[in-house]
Specification:
Helices cover 76% and strands 0% of the residues. It has helices at 16-38, 44-50, 55-58, 60-72, 76-83, 85-105, 109-122, 126-137, 143-171, 176-179, 181-196, 210-230, 239-261, 275-305, 310-317, 320-334, 340-358, 367-382, 385-393, 401-441, 447-458, 463-501, 512-519.
């Protein structure tokens, strides 16, 4: 650090109703932030249609938020030292409300993407700091419970997102998915300021690592642009994509060298020397990328190829929260006694199971068949976050927790954005392949095809209309098979992640207490 950091002031935990209100306010802020990462998923077709762009370009609404958010999250540790936890948290909430208003008012896709990026950037410190402030409100013995309360919000919000987003899109209009943040933000900001303004953390001037920050923005931005534009521009056949790939790789290399040699790095990469940190953080990031890619894919497939409305697609996604809410407090209270690696392994096995179930869907699948894996997925989610956070932060000294939390969240969010881009690209590629294979089978020798064509012609369809109908059916089957492929591959990847978790050696007693101590 620049000057010697002033001694850390420990604040006594909040008591009684103050603690309840503090938990509500901090959870509301987290809720609104996480909600915004998923609320646009089911509204994409409506937003794209309204602003006159393709759904592919529409996914920028999700990824622009994620990338800007990813860049801002690891800066939390640095900005906290400079401005103080409470001030930074308040600024984040207020600017987030303003950015939400601008998103709703956006007249075209370019400005919407710009405002979404702004919204993602100012939202950066909100999640790590809500965790930090919440843990400072509870006594150390109840750290596991505080983490469970916090993770319930981060689990329920991605589920409520598609439901709320779908309902608002179908019944009001899509800008309201952004306006809804304003009343929530006002309540969260008012309560937080009342309870926490006298609990500000000590601040001291830290020099800003401008070069490190610039390199971070450069390589993350280039990588995400490459992933997003890849599908549109035919990947590495395009000079633009090749340029972005080179910039991302070179930028990343320079970033690593700079951050490892700078005296006040913007991102503390020395954390990767710790086996628990890197094994936990990498397992969390890859699993989250797989999970988030599939969360985007399911409503897209249901709406584009199965005739579901945004509200119905939201209803399919919603029940994931039911079992998660039930199991999360249990995990939070027992994680100190039971090896967190066992919990994480169980979570990955359940994820693999539900993705395998989904890989057996066909175009005749009814609502109940599609919703069952979603309900079971709630169990996997409850056993996912808390044990992996415990592993990642175990054994760290209190002063390193904010940086570690910021860095692991950065990896998770970046992986989520990459998961979205890679999943939608692979989905289209596999569908094109299946379409070609299916089209080859449609000929005079195929009885099913000839009888279907004869039936359509008999109903008074012209030859062109008959071919159009057949092509639509082939498309539907091709995308169904592509969806199955991705679900199956994701299930295998979840199983392959299990050994990574076992590379960690969590300290006895888990990180609940350490995290609590350090999160202050």
């Amino acid at each position: 650090m620049a000057t010697a950091a002033p001694a850390y002031i420990a604040h006594a935990p909040l008591e009684g109703s103050a603690r309840v209100w503090g938990t509500i306010a901090l959870s509301a802020a987290t809720f609104m932030n996480v909600l915004d990462s998923s609320i646009a998923n089911v509204s994409l077709p409506a937003i794209s249609g309204d602003l006159g762009v393709s759904t592919t370009q529409g996914t920028w609404v999700i990824t622009s938020f994620a990338v800007a958010n990813a860049i801002a999250v690891p800066l939390t540790g640095f900005m906290t030292q400079r401005f103080g936890q409470v001030r930074l948290f308040m600024a984040s909430v207020i600017l987030f409300m303003m950015a939400s208003l601008l998103c709703g008012l956006a007249p075209n896709m370019t400005t919407l993407i710009l405002f979404r990026a702004l919204q993602g950037f100012v939202a950066g410190p909100m999640i790590p700091l809500s965790q930090t402030l919440l843990l400072s409100s509870y006594p150390k013995a109840k750290a596991g419970l505080a983490m469970a309360m916090w993770s319930m919000t981060t689990l329920v919000a991605p589920v409520m997102g598609p439901l709320l987003g779908g309902w608002i899109t179908d019944n009001i209009s899509w800008p309201w998915i952004f306006y809804i943040n304003i009343p929530v933000g006002i309540v969260a900001a008012a309560i937080t300021w009342t309870l926490y303004r006298k609990r500000e953390s000590t601040t001291h001037k830290v020099p800003i690592d401008a070069i490190g920050l610039a390199l971070l923005v450069l390589w993350v931005g280039s990588m995400q642009l490459m992933l997003d534009k890849g599908k549109e521009l035919d990947w590495f056949h395009s000079p633009q994509i090749v340029t972005m790939a080179v910039v991302a790789v070179v930028g990343f290399a320079f970033f690593l060298i700079w951050e490892l040699t700078d005296k006040h790095p913007v991102v503390d990469l020395s954390l990767f020397k710790r086996r628990n940190f890197w094994s936990g953080a990498v397992a969390t990031a890859v699993a989250y990328g797989l999970f988030f890619g599939n969360v985007v894919l399911l409503p897209l497939w249901l709406q584009q190829w199965m005739g579901y409305t945004a509200t119905q697609a939201g209803m399919i996604m919603a029940p994931v929260g039911l079992l998660a809410i039930f199991f999360s407090p249990i995990v939070g209270l027992t994680v100190a006694k039971i090896d967190p690696r066992r919990y994480a392994t169980f979570s990955f096995l359940v994820f693999a199971l539900i993705l395998w179930m989904r890989s057996n869907f066909n175009t005749q699948a009814d609502f109940v068949t599609i919703i069952i894996p979603t309900i079971i997925q709630g169990i996997a989610m409850a056993f996912f976050f808390i044990p992996l956070v415990t592993i990642t932060l175990s054994g760290l000294t209190p002063d390193r927790i904010p940086a570690a939390s910021g860095l692991s969240n950065f990896l998770r969010i970046t992986a989520g954005a990459m998961g979205t881009s890679l999943t939608t690209t692979l989905w289209d590629n596999r569908a094109t392949l299946h379409h070609a294979q299916l089209a080859e089978t449609i000929n005079q020798g195929n009885n099913a095809a000839t009888s279907a064509m004869a039936g359509l012609s008999g109903s008074g369809f012209s030859t062109d209309q008959v071919m159009g109908q057949i092509n639509r059916l082939v498309d539907q089957q091709a995308y169904m098979l592509a969806t199955n492929d991705i679900f199956y591959a994701s299930a295998i990847l979840f199983l392959l992640l299990i050994p990574l978790v076992w590379l960690a050696k969590p300290q006895k007693g888990g990180a609940g207490g350490d995290a609590a101590a350090g999160a202050h």
